[in-house]
Every structure is written in structure tokens, then in C-alpha cells.
Design brief:
Number of strands: 3
Oligomer: single chain
Shape: flat
Radius of gyration: 13 Å
Distance between the termini: 10 Å
Largest sheet: 3 strands, parallel
Order of helices and strands: EEHEH
Structural class: alpha/beta
Strand order of the largest sheet: 1-2-3
Number of domains: 1
Helix content: 25-40%
Number of helices: 2
Low-confidence stretches: none
């Protein structure tokens, strides 16, 4: 069984350690993946998430435009259903 952590991100380029930095260097005793959903950021949020992929099991999902909160939540539920099917 794999545990998925979903991290919603929008223009987080100035604060990378507040998100993915928490997981870096920790010894986690179970299979996990971190899904970073970049919700149309105009900064380097997606690139920072990908830099962590060399140290953490990070997958990046990028939206081309910022979605309103309801659509963003729907996208998270859609990703959750995809993960459940794996």
C-alpha cells in the first residue's frame, strides 16, 4: 500500500521549505508519494517541486491557469480516484 500526500501549491516559489522541505531528510517507514498540484503559478513553484524529486518521491501535476477553489478541489478528488485505481 502506498500513502499519497497531496500538496496544493500556488506561487510558493518563495517558501519551498514550508512544503516539501518538511519531508526531506526524514526516515519514513512506509511507501509514499507526494503529489504536488501547482495551480497555475506564475513563479517557479513547479521547478522547485521537481528539484525535490531527486530526494523525494514527488510527482507534479500542473494546471495552466489558476482554478477557483471548487474546481481545484474537484481536481484533487479526481487525482484521488486515479490513485485508488492503481
Amino acid at each position: 500500500m502506498t500513502v499519497y500526500f497531496l500538496l496544493a501549491a500556488y506561487n510558493e516559489g518563495e517558501r519551498p521549505s514550508e512544503g516539501l522541505g518538511r519531508y526531506s531528510g526524514r526516515k519514513i517507514q512506509f511507501d509514499y508519494k507526494i503529489l504536488v498540484v501547482d495551480d497555475g503559478s506564475s513563479d517557479n513553484t513547479g521547478n522547485i517541486a521537481l528539484k525535490y524529486a531527486s530526494r523525494l518521491p514527488v510527482e507534479l501535476v500542473s494546471h495552466n491557469i489558476n482554478r477557483d477553489w471548487a474546481r481545484f478541489e474537484n481536481r484533487l478528488y479526481e487525482l484521488e480516484r486515479q490513485v485508488e485505481r492503481q
